[in-house]
Amino acid sequence: MIKAWKSALISVALLASSTMSYAGNGKAVVPHWLASTNGSTSVFISNITDNPLKVTIKFYDQNGNVKKAERYENFSGSGTEVKANSSAYVNIGQNGVTGYGYATIEWENIGDADDVYGLVAYAHFAKTTLYRSAIPVNDGNPF
Fold first, then answer.
1. Residues in contact with 11: Cβ distance below 8 Å, sequence separation at least 6, in sequence order
2. In the predicted structure, residue 10 carries a pLDDT above the cut 90
3. What is the largest CA-CA distance in the chain?
4. Spatial separation of the C-alpha atoms in residues 138 and 32, rounded to whole Å
5. 46-59 pLDDT, tens per residue?
6. Are 143 and 106 in contact (CB under 8 A)?
7. Which residue, among 63, 51, 61, has the nearest Cα to 117 in the 3D structure?
8. CA dist list (Å): 101 to 46, 64, 108, 130
9. Distance (Å, rounded) from C-alpha 83 to C-alpha 143?
10. Rounded to the nearest 5°, which phi and psi values hold at 138?
11. CA–CA distance from 13 to each of 3, 9, 19, 116, 122 (Å)?
12. CB neighbours of 50 closer than 8 A, spacing ≥ 6?
């Protein structure tokens, strides 16, 4: 009986440990971006950890091609790091990039940190000061 009980406890412990999340990295999708000479899309991210994060944001156009963003604000480390507890943004479309598509945001801890969540993000398209459109990223939840 004790042997069966031990086997059951070990099985439960193994199952529980396989569902636990020790991340150290995360991803989210910006489901839509639009850019033209008259408007641009900005993706705002906030590092909600006490550790610096390596962050990669890639824009893909309607044909799956990677498009280069024109502006990176408050990134360090050659545009790949966001400092602890700080915010940054990327903009596509300021200098005539025309297109639409989606974007991916990926982050990973730098060093030995192992944060479960690292970022929250928000995006919006602005054509003029009168026309703005919100673009949800991960329903506003941390990732």
1. none
2. no
3. 74
4. 12
5. 999 999 999 999 99
6. no
7. 51
8. 22, 8, 24, 23
9. 16
10. 55, 35
11. 15, 6, 10, 20, 37
12. 84, 85
